[in-house]
Amino acid sequence: MNRALAEVSLFGVIVIGCLLVVLYAQRVRAEASPDGGYAAERRLGFGLGDAKAAAVRWTTTTNHREIGMLYIAFGTVAAIWGGIDAMMMRTHLLTPEANIWTEQTYNELFTMHGLTMLIFFVTPVFFGIGNYFLPLLIGADDMAFPRLNAVGFWLLPPSLLLARLGIVAEVTGAVLAVVVPTDWLSVLLAFQEPAIGWTMYPPLSLAPNPQTNFLLLGLHLSGIATTIGAINFITTVIYERDESIGWANLDIFSWNMLVTSAIIIFVFPLLGTALLMLLFDRNFGTTFFAVEGGGPILWQHLFWFWGHPEVYIIFLPATGLMSLILPKFVGRKLFGFKFIVYSTIAIAVLSFGVWAHHMFVTGIDPRVRASFMATSIAIAVPSAIKVFNWITTMWNGDVRLAAPTILCIGSIGLFIVGGVTGVFLAVIPVDVIYHGTYYVVGHFHLILMGIIPLMMFAASYYWFPVLTGRMYDRRLAIFQSSLLVVGSALTFTTLMALGFLELPRRYATYPPAYSGLQVVATVGSFIIGLSVLMWLYNMLWSSVRGTPIETADPWELKATEQFTPEWQWFEDRLERERGVPPSEPEDIRPSYVPAQGERPLSIYGRIKPVARTVANDAGIGAVGGFVGTMLMTGVLLLAVVLGVFDLESFATLATFVGLPANLGLGYALFVAGGTTVWPLLFLSLGEYLPGTLTLVTGLWYATVIASGFALAFYTGQPGLQLVAYLLFVLLGHWSYGLGLAGTIATLGGRQRRPSAGEGE
Question: Where, by residue number, does the polypeptide cross the bilayer (predicted)?
Answer without folding.
Answer: 6-25, 67-84, 115-138, 212-239, 259-280, 312-330, 339-358, 370-389, 401-428, 440-464, 476-501, 513-537, 618-645, 665-686, 698-716, 722-747
